[in-house]
Structure of Phosphoserine phosphatase:
Amino acid sequence: MALFLNEPHDRVVEWKGALAQQAYLWQQGKWVAGQLPAAEGQLVLLAEQLDKHALMTSLQVLDDAGVQAELYRVAAVAGRELASLRLSAWSPELKAALQQVSDSWDMACVPALPQGDDPGLVLMDMDSTAIQIECIDEIAALAGVGEEVAAVTRAAMEGALPFSESLRRRVAALSGADAGIIDEVIGRMPLMPGLTELVAGLKAMGWKVAIASGGFVPFARHLQQQLGLDAVFANTLEMADGKLTGKVLGDIVDADAKARILEELAQQHGIPLSQTVAIGDGANDLKMLARAGLGVALHAKPLVQEQAPVCLNRLSLEGVLGLLQAR
Protein backbone atom coordinates (compact mmCIF):
# COMPACT_ATOMS: atom_id res chain seq x y z
CA MET A 1 0.00 0.00 0.00
CA ALA A 2 3.01 2.32 0.17
CA LEU A 3 2.36 3.11 -3.48
CA PHE A 4 -0.49 5.40 -2.45
CA LEU A 5 1.57 7.24 0.15
CA ASN A 6 3.94 8.93 -2.29
CA GLU A 7 4.48 12.67 -2.51
CA PRO A 8 1.34 14.68 -3.40
CA HIS A 9 2.29 15.45 -7.01
CA ASP A 10 3.28 11.96 -8.19
CA ARG A 11 1.60 11.11 -11.47
CA VAL A 12 -1.34 8.77 -11.01
CA VAL A 13 -0.56 6.88 -14.22
CA GLU A 14 2.47 5.41 -12.43
CA TRP A 15 0.01 3.31 -10.36
CA LYS A 16 -1.05 1.34 -13.43
CA GLY A 17 0.89 -1.77 -12.47
CA ALA A 18 -0.70 -2.03 -9.03
CA LEU A 19 -4.23 -1.47 -10.35
CA ALA A 20 -3.77 -4.18 -12.95
CA GLN A 21 -3.68 -6.63 -10.04
CA GLN A 22 -6.14 -5.11 -7.57
CA ALA A 23 -8.77 -2.38 -7.29
CA TYR A 24 -8.67 -0.13 -4.23
CA LEU A 25 -11.35 1.46 -2.06
CA TRP A 26 -10.93 4.84 -0.40
CA GLN A 27 -12.19 4.46 3.16
CA GLN A 28 -11.74 6.79 6.11
CA GLY A 29 -8.84 8.63 4.53
CA LYS A 30 -6.85 5.65 3.31
CA TRP A 31 -6.72 3.05 0.56
CA VAL A 32 -7.75 -0.53 1.22
CA ALA A 33 -7.82 -3.40 -1.25
CA GLY A 34 -11.36 -4.11 -2.41
CA GLN A 35 -14.27 -3.29 -4.69
CA LEU A 36 -17.60 -1.56 -4.29
CA PRO A 37 -20.43 -4.09 -4.18
CA ALA A 38 -22.47 -1.80 -6.44
CA ALA A 39 -21.86 1.53 -8.15
CA GLU A 40 -24.31 4.36 -8.76
CA GLY A 41 -21.90 6.69 -10.51
CA GLN A 42 -18.68 7.04 -12.43
CA LEU A 43 -15.93 9.64 -11.98
CA VAL A 44 -13.15 10.16 -14.51
CA LEU A 45 -10.33 12.66 -13.99
CA LEU A 46 -8.35 13.71 -17.07
CA ALA A 47 -5.29 15.88 -17.66
CA GLU A 48 -2.20 16.12 -19.80
CA GLN A 49 -0.37 14.85 -16.71
CA LEU A 50 -2.72 13.75 -13.95
CA ASP A 51 -1.10 14.09 -10.52
CA LYS A 52 -2.08 12.80 -7.10
CA HIS A 53 -3.25 16.27 -6.09
CA ALA A 54 -6.16 16.05 -8.55
CA LEU A 55 -7.18 12.68 -7.17
CA MET A 56 -6.86 13.60 -3.50
CA THR A 57 -8.75 16.87 -4.00
CA SER A 58 -11.59 14.98 -5.64
CA LEU A 59 -11.59 12.35 -2.90
CA GLN A 60 -12.02 15.08 -0.30
CA VAL A 61 -15.21 16.19 -2.07
CA LEU A 62 -16.43 12.58 -2.04
CA ASP A 63 -15.60 12.27 1.66
CA ASP A 64 -17.55 15.43 2.45
CA ALA A 65 -20.54 14.01 0.57
CA GLY A 66 -20.30 10.61 2.24
CA VAL A 67 -19.63 8.86 -1.06
CA GLN A 68 -17.34 5.84 -1.26
CA ALA A 69 -14.99 5.45 -4.25
CA GLU A 70 -13.24 2.54 -5.91
CA LEU A 71 -10.17 3.41 -7.96
CA TYR A 72 -9.95 0.68 -10.57
CA ARG A 73 -8.17 2.05 -13.63
CA VAL A 74 -5.49 4.56 -14.59
CA ALA A 75 -4.36 4.87 -18.19
CA ALA A 76 -2.76 7.01 -20.87
CA VAL A 77 -5.04 7.54 -23.87
CA ALA A 78 -4.12 9.65 -26.90
CA GLY A 79 -1.23 11.19 -24.98
CA ARG A 80 -3.40 12.18 -22.00
CA GLU A 81 -3.75 10.62 -18.56
CA LEU A 82 -6.87 9.54 -16.71
CA ALA A 83 -8.10 7.89 -13.53
CA SER A 84 -11.43 6.04 -13.31
CA LEU A 85 -13.42 5.62 -10.12
CA ARG A 86 -16.68 3.85 -9.36
CA LEU A 87 -18.90 5.75 -6.89
CA SER A 88 -21.38 4.49 -4.32
CA ALA A 89 -23.73 7.39 -5.12
CA TRP A 90 -24.28 10.09 -7.74
CA SER A 91 -26.16 13.37 -7.76
CA PRO A 92 -26.11 16.67 -9.68
CA GLU A 93 -24.89 18.32 -6.49
CA LEU A 94 -21.92 15.95 -6.28
CA LYS A 95 -21.04 16.64 -9.91
CA ALA A 96 -21.21 20.41 -9.29
CA ALA A 97 -18.97 20.14 -6.22
CA LEU A 98 -16.37 18.13 -8.11
CA GLN A 99 -16.52 20.55 -11.04
CA GLN A 100 -15.87 23.45 -8.68
CA VAL A 101 -12.54 22.05 -7.47
CA SER A 102 -11.30 20.91 -10.90
CA ASP A 103 -8.94 23.82 -11.35
CA SER A 104 -6.25 22.22 -13.54
CA TRP A 105 -7.86 19.03 -14.79
CA ASP A 106 -11.05 17.99 -16.57
CA MET A 107 -13.50 15.58 -15.06
CA ALA A 108 -16.69 13.68 -15.83
CA CYS A 109 -19.06 12.70 -13.04
CA VAL A 110 -22.00 10.80 -14.52
CA PRO A 111 -24.34 7.97 -13.56
CA ALA A 112 -22.76 5.77 -16.25
CA LEU A 113 -20.40 5.88 -19.22
CA PRO A 114 -20.75 4.21 -22.61
CA GLN A 115 -18.78 1.00 -22.98
CA GLY A 116 -15.99 1.45 -25.50
CA ASP A 117 -15.79 -2.28 -26.23
CA ASP A 118 -19.39 -2.35 -27.52
CA PRO A 119 -20.64 -0.74 -30.77
CA GLY A 120 -21.37 2.96 -30.44
CA LEU A 121 -21.91 6.28 -32.18
CA VAL A 122 -20.31 9.72 -31.80
CA LEU A 123 -22.20 12.66 -33.30
CA MET A 124 -20.44 16.01 -33.15
CA ASP A 125 -21.04 19.58 -34.08
CA MET A 126 -18.66 21.02 -36.68
CA ASP A 127 -17.93 24.73 -36.21
CA SER A 128 -15.86 25.40 -33.07
CA THR A 129 -16.06 21.68 -32.26
CA ALA A 130 -14.65 19.52 -35.06
CA ILE A 131 -12.91 22.58 -36.50
CA GLN A 132 -11.54 25.69 -34.80
CA ILE A 133 -13.54 28.29 -36.74
CA GLU A 134 -17.12 29.35 -37.43
CA CYS A 135 -17.25 28.94 -41.19
CA ILE A 136 -20.01 31.50 -41.72
CA ASP A 137 -17.94 34.11 -39.89
CA GLU A 138 -14.98 33.37 -42.17
CA ILE A 139 -17.17 33.66 -45.28
CA ALA A 140 -18.61 36.91 -43.96
CA ALA A 141 -15.17 38.37 -43.26
CA LEU A 142 -14.11 37.71 -46.84
CA ALA A 143 -17.40 39.17 -48.08
CA GLY A 144 -16.87 42.37 -46.09
CA VAL A 145 -19.64 41.84 -43.52
CA GLY A 146 -17.61 40.05 -40.87
CA GLU A 147 -18.45 42.10 -37.77
CA GLU A 148 -22.17 42.11 -38.51
CA VAL A 149 -22.35 38.34 -38.94
CA ALA A 150 -19.99 37.45 -36.09
CA ALA A 151 -22.16 39.38 -33.63
CA VAL A 152 -25.22 37.34 -34.64
CA THR A 153 -23.21 34.11 -34.41
CA ARG A 154 -22.18 34.91 -30.83
CA ALA A 155 -25.75 35.68 -29.85
CA ALA A 156 -26.97 32.40 -31.32
CA MET A 157 -24.28 30.25 -29.70
CA GLU A 158 -24.97 31.87 -26.32
CA GLY A 159 -28.70 31.15 -26.66
CA ALA A 160 -29.78 34.80 -27.03
CA LEU A 161 -31.29 34.19 -30.49
CA PRO A 162 -33.19 31.20 -31.92
CA PHE A 163 -30.74 29.37 -34.15
CA SER A 164 -32.89 29.22 -37.30
CA GLU A 165 -33.59 32.95 -37.12
CA SER A 166 -29.94 33.73 -36.58
CA LEU A 167 -28.85 31.55 -39.49
CA ARG A 168 -31.27 33.19 -41.92
CA ARG A 169 -30.13 36.64 -40.81
CA ARG A 170 -26.46 35.74 -41.24
CA VAL A 171 -26.94 34.08 -44.62
CA ALA A 172 -29.00 37.03 -45.87
CA ALA A 173 -26.03 39.28 -45.14
CA LEU A 174 -23.97 37.17 -47.59
CA SER A 175 -26.23 37.88 -50.56
CA GLY A 176 -24.17 38.63 -53.66
CA ALA A 177 -20.89 37.26 -52.28
CA ASP A 178 -18.73 35.25 -54.67
CA ALA A 179 -19.34 31.51 -54.16
CA GLY A 180 -15.59 30.94 -54.59
CA ILE A 181 -15.16 32.20 -51.03
CA ILE A 182 -16.35 28.79 -49.83
CA ASP A 183 -13.40 26.98 -51.40
CA GLU A 184 -11.07 29.62 -50.00
CA VAL A 185 -12.32 28.96 -46.45
CA ILE A 186 -12.12 25.19 -46.95
CA GLY A 187 -8.50 25.55 -47.98
CA ARG A 188 -7.54 27.02 -44.62
CA MET A 189 -9.99 25.26 -42.32
CA PRO A 190 -8.11 24.27 -39.11
CA LEU A 191 -9.08 21.01 -37.44
CA MET A 192 -9.75 21.04 -33.71
CA PRO A 193 -6.84 19.54 -31.73
CA GLY A 194 -7.47 15.89 -31.01
CA LEU A 195 -9.93 15.40 -33.88
CA THR A 196 -7.78 13.03 -35.92
CA GLU A 197 -6.85 11.06 -32.78
CA LEU A 198 -10.51 10.81 -31.79
CA VAL A 199 -11.71 9.63 -35.19
CA ALA A 200 -8.85 7.12 -35.55
CA GLY A 201 -9.51 5.79 -32.05
CA LEU A 202 -13.25 5.46 -32.69
CA LYS A 203 -12.67 3.61 -35.94
CA ALA A 204 -10.30 1.22 -34.17
CA MET A 205 -13.08 0.58 -31.63
CA GLY A 206 -15.59 -0.08 -34.42
CA TRP A 207 -17.68 3.01 -33.60
CA LYS A 208 -19.63 5.17 -36.08
CA VAL A 209 -18.64 8.84 -36.37
CA ALA A 210 -20.83 11.58 -37.85
CA ILE A 211 -21.31 15.35 -37.93
CA ALA A 212 -24.56 17.28 -37.44
CA SER A 213 -23.82 20.91 -38.15
CA GLY A 214 -25.69 24.17 -38.23
CA GLY A 215 -23.02 25.15 -40.76
CA PHE A 216 -22.86 24.22 -44.39
CA VAL A 217 -22.60 21.13 -46.56
CA PRO A 218 -19.33 21.87 -48.45
CA PHE A 219 -17.34 22.12 -45.21
CA ALA A 220 -18.94 19.04 -43.66
CA ARG A 221 -18.36 16.98 -46.81
CA HIS A 222 -14.74 18.07 -46.93
CA LEU A 223 -14.28 16.72 -43.40
CA GLN A 224 -16.12 13.54 -44.33
CA GLN A 225 -13.71 12.89 -47.21
CA GLN A 226 -10.65 13.90 -45.19
CA LEU A 227 -11.45 11.76 -42.14
CA GLY A 228 -13.66 9.00 -43.50
CA LEU A 229 -16.72 9.98 -41.45
CA ASP A 230 -19.77 7.76 -41.70
CA ALA A 231 -22.29 10.58 -42.29
CA VAL A 232 -22.63 14.36 -42.28
CA PHE A 233 -25.67 16.61 -41.98
CA ALA A 234 -25.54 20.36 -42.61
CA ASN A 235 -27.32 23.25 -44.31
CA THR A 236 -27.34 24.04 -48.03
CA LEU A 237 -26.52 27.53 -49.25
CA GLU A 238 -28.40 28.59 -52.38
CA MET A 239 -26.17 29.77 -55.22
CA ALA A 240 -26.93 31.30 -58.61
CA ASP A 241 -24.53 32.48 -61.32
CA GLY A 242 -21.54 31.90 -59.06
CA LYS A 243 -22.95 34.04 -56.26
CA LEU A 244 -24.59 33.36 -52.90
CA THR A 245 -28.26 34.35 -52.99
CA GLY A 246 -28.58 34.94 -49.26
CA LYS A 247 -30.94 31.99 -48.79
CA VAL A 248 -30.77 28.54 -47.22
CA LEU A 249 -32.38 25.63 -49.08
CA GLY A 250 -34.49 23.02 -47.29
CA ASP A 251 -34.92 22.44 -43.58
CA ILE A 252 -32.38 24.00 -41.24
CA VAL A 253 -30.24 21.76 -39.05
CA ASP A 254 -31.18 23.31 -35.72
CA ALA A 255 -31.23 22.00 -32.15
CA ASP A 256 -34.27 19.77 -32.71
CA ALA A 257 -32.79 18.38 -35.92
CA LYS A 258 -29.50 17.49 -34.22
CA ALA A 259 -31.28 15.53 -31.49
CA ARG A 260 -33.41 13.78 -34.10
CA ILE A 261 -30.36 12.91 -36.23
CA LEU A 262 -28.72 11.32 -33.18
CA GLU A 263 -31.74 9.10 -32.60
CA GLU A 264 -32.14 8.18 -36.27
CA LEU A 265 -28.48 7.27 -36.74
CA ALA A 266 -28.50 5.16 -33.59
CA GLN A 267 -31.62 3.33 -34.77
CA GLN A 268 -30.19 2.88 -38.27
CA HIS A 269 -27.08 1.18 -36.90
CA GLY A 270 -28.81 -0.74 -34.12
CA ILE A 271 -27.01 1.20 -31.38
CA PRO A 272 -28.75 1.90 -28.04
CA LEU A 273 -28.82 5.56 -27.01
CA SER A 274 -26.78 4.62 -23.94
CA GLN A 275 -23.94 3.89 -26.39
CA THR A 276 -24.09 7.31 -28.07
CA VAL A 277 -21.92 10.39 -27.48
CA ALA A 278 -22.75 13.92 -28.60
CA ILE A 279 -20.16 16.72 -28.66
CA GLY A 280 -20.83 20.43 -29.12
CA ASP A 281 -20.15 23.94 -27.88
CA GLY A 282 -23.23 26.09 -28.54
CA ALA A 283 -26.79 26.48 -27.28
CA ASN A 284 -28.07 24.72 -30.40
CA ASP A 285 -26.21 21.58 -29.26
CA LEU A 286 -27.88 21.27 -25.86
CA LYS A 287 -30.77 19.04 -26.93
CA MET A 288 -28.36 16.70 -28.68
CA LEU A 289 -26.10 16.60 -25.60
CA ALA A 290 -29.05 15.85 -23.33
CA ARG A 291 -30.38 13.08 -25.58
CA ALA A 292 -27.10 11.18 -25.93
CA GLY A 293 -25.83 8.54 -23.54
CA LEU A 294 -22.93 10.93 -22.89
CA GLY A 295 -23.11 14.63 -23.74
CA VAL A 296 -19.79 16.48 -23.88
CA ALA A 297 -19.43 20.26 -24.11
CA LEU A 298 -16.11 21.24 -25.67
CA HIS A 299 -14.68 24.65 -24.69
CA ALA A 300 -18.30 25.70 -24.58
CA LYS A 301 -20.26 28.91 -24.08
CA PRO A 302 -21.34 29.71 -20.47
CA LEU A 303 -24.94 28.55 -20.94
CA VAL A 304 -23.74 25.22 -22.29
CA GLN A 305 -21.19 24.86 -19.48
CA GLU A 306 -24.04 25.17 -16.98
CA GLN A 307 -26.27 22.55 -18.60
CA ALA A 308 -24.01 20.00 -20.27
CA PRO A 309 -23.50 16.60 -18.59
CA VAL A 310 -19.70 16.81 -19.11
CA CYS A 311 -17.44 19.76 -19.91
CA LEU A 312 -13.95 19.57 -21.39
CA ASN A 313 -12.17 22.88 -20.88
CA ARG A 314 -8.47 21.99 -20.65
CA LEU A 315 -8.17 18.99 -22.93
CA SER A 316 -9.65 18.89 -26.41
CA LEU A 317 -11.32 16.15 -28.47
CA GLU A 318 -8.78 13.53 -27.42
CA GLY A 319 -10.41 13.77 -23.99
CA VAL A 320 -13.58 12.20 -25.41
CA LEU A 321 -11.56 9.17 -26.45
CA GLY A 322 -10.25 8.96 -22.88
CA LEU A 323 -13.79 8.94 -21.52
CA LEU A 324 -14.75 6.09 -23.82
CA GLN A 325 -11.78 4.04 -22.72
CA ALA A 326 -12.13 4.88 -19.04
CA ARG A 327 -14.05 1.68 -18.25
